[in-house]
Design goal:
Helix content is about 35%, strand content about 15%. By secondary structure, the chain is of the alpha/beta class. The relative contact order is 0.22. The chain binds zinc ion.
């Protein structure tokens, strides 16, 4: 979750020629010859648990375009009632959804500097307990629908947490591309490198330029993780997401997939 719920400046105004600019961006993607099946694209929606109107709209768009979606759920926010409602929202598209863990309570515990739920200000035993409580809660509520993958709030955590993930049986981790410290070998990383809704640029046009550059570069790298924050989305953001999904679907060199399938296939991201 980012600070505040207001849409980032780029969503205040979608450029009139955005369709053309998106085409141009996708046309410029140069994939490596080794990416025979095309670039992997995965969408990760964060801060999930409350089945509100915006989440319903998000899930609906992914269902309409038949695009897989990885949903990062904050365990402390999830209840049996909310889980049943989330299942109803996804009704017929269960195979297109992958549910993973997003922190425990999504709280910052650092008195200064970068926000961290799993950082140096807390003891290993407390962090370990939070991880385990979250894991057990999602397992109990979701059963087989839960994929043992972890995404730390604000995309970062410390090395004690990374080691605890391996020990507690998590199979995958999703942070920013290039995040440090390195993860243990047994925990596969599926990084994100494109941010749609929590961009920091003060003016919209810089936001658009940087977003399109991130998209072009990560698609060209062969692995493109795209972050979604539904609470920050407005109508413009929903409209653009529809455009993005339909453009990606129409193009051959992209393979849209969720984290559960990547894990099952044993997919490893090349550095
Ligand atoms: Zn978050």
């Amino acid at each position: 979750m980012s600070t505040g719920k207001n849409p980032a400046p780029l969503w205040q105004h979608i450029p009139a020629d955005i369709h053309r600019r998106l085409h141009h961006c996708l046309d410029q993607v140069v994939t490596k010859p080794s990416d025979g099946d095309g670039s992997i694209v995965f969408f990760r929606a964060d801060d999930v648990a409350v089945p509100g109107r915006k989440l319903a709209r998000l899930v609906d768009i992914f269902g309409k375009h038949q695009v897989p979606l990885t949903l990062a759920v904050v365990p402390a926010w999830l209840t049996e009632t909310r889980w049943q409602r989330l299942l109803e929202l996804c009704s017929k598209d269960h195979s297109l959804r992958c549910w993973i863990q997003h922190g425990w309570r999504h709280l910052n515990h650092e008195p200064r500097g970068s926000k961290l739920e799993f950082g140096p200000s807390r003891s290993l035993s407390r962090k370990r307990k939070d991880l385990q409580t979250g894991f057990q809660r999602l397992n109990r509520l979701m059963g087989d629908a839960f994929t043992p993958a972890f995404t730390p709030p604000w995309n970062r955590c410390d090395s004690e947490t990374l080691n605890a993930l391996q020990e507690l049986g998590y199979q995958a981790l999703s942070r920013d591309l290039g995040a440090q410290p390195p993860a243990p070998a047994a925990v596969t990383e599926y990084p994100v490198s494109v941010d749609l809704h929590t961009r920091k640029e003060k003016d919209g046009e810089s936001g658009w330029q940087n977003f399109l550059k991130e998209l072009r570069e990560s698609l060209g790298n062969g692995f493109c993780g795209i972050m979604i924050h539904h609470q920050r989305m407005n109508n413009a953001a929903f409209d653009f997401l529809e455009l993005l999904l339909s453009e990606l679907k129409q193009r051959n060199p992209f393979r849209l997939i969720h984290v559960g399938t990547l894990l099952r296939e044993g997919y490893v991201v090349e550095n």
